[in-house]
Amino acid sequence: MSNEVIIKDAVKRYGDFTALNGVSLNIKEGEFFTLLGPSGCGKTTLLRMIAGFNSIEAGDFYFGEKRINDVAAHKRDIGMVFQNYAIFPHLTVKENVAYGLKARKTPKKEMDERVAEALKLVQIEHLADRKPNELSGGQQQRVALARAFVIEPSVLLMDEPLSNLDAKLRVQMRTVIKKLQRRLGITTIYVTHDQEEALAISDRIAVMKDGNIMQIGTPNEIYAKPQNPFVAGFIGVSNFLDCDVDGSKVTIQGELSLEIPVQKEFTGKGKLSARPEQLFFSETGMPGHVLFSTFLGDFIEYEVELDNGQSLIVNEYTKDTASVHEDGKRVHLSFDPNRVSLYVAETGEVLSK
Ligand SMILES: Nc1ncnc2c1ncn2[C@@H]1O[C@H](COP(=O)(O)OP(=O)(O)O)[C@@H](O)[C@H]1O
Ligand SMILES: [Mg+2]
Question: Which of 94, 96, 150, 205 could form a disulfide with 118 if both were Cys (CB 3.0 to 4.6 A apart)?
Fold first, then answer.
């Protein structure tokens, strides 16, 4: 009974502050969809509108064919998981998970079966009779997850569910959540400010900034083809280089000239974005010297200072290289023109294909 979620031109205002500025999304049935962006960009606001906890100033919200703008929150058939778990301290694990089924007057036998199955899916069946204060943070979050999906909601909403966990557990739990979502096929809308988590867990991501959507795409699309400098800078690491653009010819500091495949003709000041793994040491190119290197096992991360004073991050994979470049070594940097992104400096409009 999973559902697609369609949002058309959603606007949210708090007084005269516009928190969402006409947001449209088309989330497919069974999809794991993430709202990603810095703190304050409107992620929680949008999730709460979908849940029915926030008023909607303009726009249309649909679950499948059904417009839900005026449907009360408790009738929207959603499951929710929050950052602070919100599980009931006075109820046992089993009772917490049963809560939503009880409220729906599910027959006792069916309820017991479904609770047992949910606990098994999140691997806490052995903790069924404990109280929340007898559980670790990760176990409490598993209870919150089980409680959300046991009611078989048509949409599952999660707002930064892992942010109270330590780094190692966060990585473990995101895999638990992703596998569970795959298995159950519930349309899921997930909120995080953590770009690495979003890349790891999502089928698709909407990158948000100041109440606007900056790009929607698969993790690979968003990483490989950021559509504006904000996305390039927010997702992963990007080196930005000022350049002169003349059609497909791009010149950096008058030193390095390359042909970049463009989708649009432009002449003037450009901004180029290159990932650390897209830059490489070469015989010719942008001159500079190694400032610092960090050996990270599978790759070496270099900080290179160009002769114009700008610092760049360059990753070299240890499988491709025999030695570590010494600090202070004179080098030249180049890049594969087919993989970098090119923008108009002033507007941020994307030029590269
Ligand atoms: N109840 C509220 N009243 C006034 N402003 C709010 C309220 N809730 C959120 N905001 C503002 O709306 C913006 C978006 O908030 P929020 O959706 O919580 O961001 P995020 O979840 O992306 O961190 C922020 O600037 C926040 O201060
Ligand atoms: Mg939030």
Answer: 150
